[in-house]
Specification:
A 4-stranded mixed β-sheet has the order 1-4-5-8, with helices on one face. The longest helix has 37 residues. By secondary structure, it is an alpha+beta fold. The protein is 51% helix and 16% strand.
């Protein structure tokens, strides 16, 4: 990550473009194939470690773009590819020969994916896909998009090639500038074998991809927090004020200790969950949601405090990476599902214990 991918970041951030060379390099190194070796969820341990290392390397939007290719698009192709066309794309995606994205959101559709208006209609022996997708990452750099669309029989997922995707607007995002988030117009005629998930099964299939995307986002966030905390703690040891290192000031070292503890315990929870899920061969949606929302909210808090611990330098773009990490991690509370949607998934799993209640509670 440090040698091959990190050097791409300055130009990507400056130009607000996603470098496809990052996907190519990871694929050529065998990282994608290694991650997706094994059962239906591949190697979850490798997923966590790879995502965490991208965060620790400070890759920001490049890391998230690689993650969306690997943890959102590839799991859909890997599980639902039944045609030669789809299987060939999966092989190219794992080798890093193509960059993939997933297109779901629309102008009036954020979390409510069942309400998408992009249409899938029959056109002889082929299919017509037509609509506009609002926030697609890395949309302008992708060779292929997996598009969630509406059919009379229910939502479907269709493989749309680059010539059927047209960039309508490049969003000027606050952070993740190297992710290249765009609004895409979709207008394509595709063969029947390009229908990856048949009408009616699109939402359930999309949930499979989101499980892996959320796990990867949590891991990448915690990797970035490790970078932020290491820099902040080292700064407290090196920087002197009032004739003594900042670390000697109780208020500052205790604040850092609190932040470090929260990050450390959340990381241990992530490792334990990935180990358990790998052993069971099952990723509980509520637990993946809980990890993602916890890490995302912690990310916003910790990076803000690390900026503060660096004083004025923390607020500058050219002296430390903390200002960028702060901006970048804000979007993790939205990407892959908002905080509120994650909490809804958690709450849906609540099960009351009436016998326990009646034992302890007196009416």
């Amino acid at each position: 990550m440090t040698d091959r991918i990190a050097p791409l970041l300055p130009a990507a951030e400056r130009d607000r473009t996603f470098p496809r060379a990052a996907v190519t390099a990871c694929g050529a190194a065998g990282l994608f194939t290694e991650r997706w070796t094994g059962g239906i969820h591949g190697d979850l341990g490798r997923s966590v470690l790879l995502s965490e290392e991208m965060g620790r390397a400070g890759l920001g939007g490049i890391g998230v773009g690689i993650g969306l290719h690997l943890e959102a698009a590839v799991p859909l192709l890997r599980r639902y590819a039944t045609t030669d066309h789809a299987r060939a794309l999966l092989g190219q995606a794992l080798d890093g020969d193509i960059t993939c994205c997933v297109a779901t959101s629309e102008q009036n559709v954020g979390s409510d994916l069942a309400a998408v208006e992009t249409r899938l209609t029959p056109k002889g022996s082929q299919w017509q896909v037509h609509g506009t997708k609002w926030y697609v990452s890395p949309g302008a750099a992708a060779d292929t998009a997996l598009v969630l669309c509406r059919h009379t029989d229910g939502p479907a997922i269709v493989i749309v090639p680059r010539d059927g995707l047209h960039t309508v607007k490049r969003w000027t995002t606050t952070g993740m500038r190297s992710l290249e988030t765009v609004c895409l117009s979709v207008d394509a005629t595709v063969p029947d074998e390009a229908v990856l998930v048949r009408p009616g099964a699109g939402l359930a299939a999309m949930g499979h991809g989101l499980l892996h995307e959320r796990l990867a986002l949590a891991a990448q966030t915690l990797g970035a927090l490790d970078l932020a905390m290491t820099l902040a703690i080292t700064h407290l040891k090196r920087r002197r004020q009032f004739g003594t290192p900042l670390h000697r000031h109780q208020a500052l070292r205790l604040r850092a200790a609190d932040l470090h503890s929260q990050v450390r315990i959340t990381r241990l929870g992530l490792y334990a969950a990935a180990t358990e899920w790998s052993a069971n061969g099952h990723v509980p949606p509520a637990e993946a949601a809980a990890l993602k929302v916890t890490a995302a909210r912690l990310g916003e808090q910790v990076t803000s405090e690390c900026v503060h611990l660096f004083g004025g330098r923390g607020y500058t773009e050219d002296a430390t990476p903390l200002e960028r990490l702060w901006r970048d991690l804000k979007v993790t509370r939205l990407g892959g599902g908002s905080d509120e949607m994650m909490w809804e998934l958690v709450a849906a799993g609540f099960r009351p214990d009436h016998a326990l209640y009646e034992h302890w509670i007196t009416d």
